[in-house]
Amino acid sequence: MTNGGGMSKEDWLAKVWGPAVARNKERQDRFETTSEIEVAPVYDAGDVAGSDYDKNVGYPAQFPFTRGVQPTMYRGRLWTMRQYAGFASAEETNRRYQYLLEQGQTGLSMAFDLPTQTGYDSDAPLALGEVGKVGVPISHVEDMAIVFDGIDLARVSTSMTINATASILLAYYIAVARREGVATKDLRGTVQNDILKEYIARGTYIYPPAPSMRLITDLFDFCAAETPNWNTISISGYHMREAGCTAAQEIAFTLADAIAYVDAAIAAGLKVDDFGPQLSFFFVAQSNLLEEVAKYRAARRLWARIMVERFGSTNPRSQMLRFHTQTAGVTLTAQQPDNNVVRSTLQALAAVLGGTQSLHVNSKDEALALPSEDAVTLSLRTQQVLAYESGVTDTVDPLAGSYFVETMTDQLEQEARAYIERIDAIGGAVRAIENGFQQQEIGDAAYRFQTQVESRERTVVGVNSFATGDETPMEILRIDPEETKRQIDRLQKVRRDRDGHRAQAALERLEAIARSSDNTMPAIVDCVEAQCTTGEICDVLRGVFGMHKELLVV
Amino acid sequence: MVTESAPVGTPARVLIAKPGLDGHDRGAKVVARALRDAGFEVIYTGIRQTPEMIVQAAVQEDVDAVGLSILSGAHLDLLPAIVSGLRENGLGEVAVFAGGIIPREDYDALTQMGIAGIFGPGTSLKEIVDFTRQVTGAESATA
Q1: Dihedral over alpha carbons A553, A554, B2, B4 (to 10 degrees)
Q2: Test the B interface: residue of A339, A441, A447 with most B CBs within 10 Å
Q3: Spatial separation of the C-alpha atoms in residues A329 and A163, rounded to whole Å
Q4: What tens-digit pLDDT sequence spans chain B (143 residues)?
Q5: Is A242's CB within 8 Å of B21's CB?
Q6: In DSSP terms, which residues pair with A157 in a beta bridge?
Q7: Which residues between 79 and 98 in chain B have a beta carbon less than 8 angstroms from any beta carbon of chain A?
């Protein structure tokens, strides 16, 4: 192929680039992405000549959705600005939500504390020290009612980062909506409900895989009828990438988990195009800007193909990979924390160029604590500057056709496919997790990354290079122990004042249903309406299902 | 896992543990691997360990040092319970160190409670390996 000046790329490499490198060596012997894909000095039309543009790229909202899932993308409607928040108590969290909505945030994202995520009440011995620390404690329906006091559930969309206890937290939300006279069909939002990545990387599992998968498909089935505008799962690569894996692995492990959920739902008798449109995804935005943009595009294309090729989907809405993005917590540094604003902005730009449906931008103080109100406001402003000032929102998929981005999109799709084939060969995502495959791959990549930082092969500005030795003290958010006491007092009052017989009967019915093959979701809704607590409901299910034991992979 | 360079004589034994409900184990696992590669015998507990479970593991494994990784913010409640549990079980001499998300203003309180080293975000593995060599008396071991 001949390009500018009548010179072929081979000629250019031999006659121009080669001698230049011979005179002055490049900064590195080899340039590569996080996925260890080699990056060439230059890309041209020859790199994409083998790829059928119409088939692989095409147009927005057209299969395979490489360019995005909406025809107008951000020209029509901007992404949902959704800052992950929740801490201390139901009251404090309500105050933060009201504040964020006043500042122009367009959706809510609930962070729950670890006892709530792992099925313990605020006064359980295992909750010691953890109540309200990483999110809001929700032990019963009254806590949930306080969090949403003054917020119209028919209008707001709410995303909940909740997994092992997703059914229970969704039940609380439904119960609050019913009290306020909001129809469940009008509820919009998401439960993360992705247990597989909890076994792999995030750690808030409760039960073993088989009953956990059943709770998930029960929720799919229930929501298809009751809450058609609710995303029943957010299949997440975020935490696996944060735990150390590469971009290609993030796509592969996420889609392999997604395949397992679709398989489980089909095995439970559901039809792929009934629940398919309610599946959603969640990825990180890391710092390698162009690899990240290619990652989102590759993930969209690969998922569309999997839904058609593997599952015979005929509804385009099931084939569209819609995703939330959060910037990369692991890149935040305690040293020179202002640098984190720059990192997060760059990462957020990648998410927007990649066509995200919603976005959380991390705050500069999060290497030290939960974000302060000032820090989170700056994160929201970062989103608003990108949305209203950068101009990147004015055309759809602006990097399409870049020789490099298209090549990287193809390469990441291929790498991810190869990993999915390896997982298929093991017997699917669940079996691979039981064998420790993903855990081992993630651990290896994390250790490789850290040794590169140690050897300064990889630069972390302000940490292993350009360090100044001073850690600027920052005002950080601290959780007031009085808030924990307030939570526990309210919990004990609810237990005392409720109709004890009704609560007991609801728990007994749940136990019977859990032992049968009937859908658990209606019984869980009955339990929360009878003011049963998160811990009580989980105790019943722990009794029936047992508890998962971690496979140690170091 | 291959031990790259074993210290002279019996290698020192280190327990790496994750107290509380926190599932963030990237740091704990990376540190466990680095210490193992530096020649220590490393025992990793896995996540969601109560203070009692960690003390029991330290007793059973007869360790020379205990490293605790915690990112949930529960450090002021959980770490002292582990230190006092070790003392009650005759392991008062075992060096305890911690890492994770621990605000600097908590360092003094933790040091006074008997935590011998605190390693925040950005700490190099070399620093942790050197510290562990020093507190276990394994200085003679070279990487």
Answers
A1: 180
A2: A447
A3: 20
A4: 334 444 457 899 999 999 999 999 999 999 999 999 999 999 999 999 999 999 999 999 999 999 999 999 999 999 999 999 999 999 999 999 999 999 999 999 999 999 999 999 999 999 999 999 999 998 544 44
A5: no
A6: A188
A7: none
Report yes or no: A466 and A338 within 8 Å, Cβ to Cβ. no
Cβ–Cβ below 8 Å for B103 and A332: no
Task: Count Cβ atoms below 10 Å from residue A263 Cβ, excluding itself.
Answer: 16
Give residue A299's Cα distance to chain centre. Answer: 14
What is the spatial distance between Cα A112 and Cα A120, in angstroms, rounded to a whole number?
A: 12
| Residue A531 contacts residue A492 (beta carbons within 8 Å) | no
Q: How far apart are CA B28 and CA B46, in angstroms?
A: 9
Amino acid residing at A180: E
Q: What confidence score (pLDDT) does residue B6 get?
A: 43
Give the predicted TM-score (pTM) of the model: 0.95
Q: Does residue A469 belong to the interface with chain B, where contact is any CB pair within 8 Å?
A: no
Residues from chain B that touch A463, judged by Cβ atoms under 8 A, are 122
Report the C-alpha gap between A372 and B19 in whole angstroms. Answer: 25
Nearest to B20 among A129, A242, A552 (CB): A129
Nearest chain B CA: its distance from A352 CA (Å): 27
Contacts of B50 in chain A (CB under 8 A): 126
* Digit-coded pLDDT (tens) for A213-248: 999 999 999 999 999 999 999 999 999 999 999 999
Q: Does B121 touch chain A (CB under 8 A)?
A: yes
Identify the DSSP state of A375.
Answer: H
In this complex, is the C-beta atom of A196 within 8 Å of any C-beta atom belonging to chain B? no
Kindly report, residue by residue over A350-361, the tens digit of the pLDDT: 999 999 999 999
Q: Tell me what ipTM this predicted complex has.
A: 0.94
What six digits make up the tokens of A56? 């692989």
Tell me how close the Cα of A203 comes to any Cα of chain B, in angstroms: 4
Kindly determine whether residue B72 and residue A133, on different chains, have CB atoms separated by under 8 Å. Answer: yes
Spatial CA neighbour of A103 closest among A490, A327, A374: A374
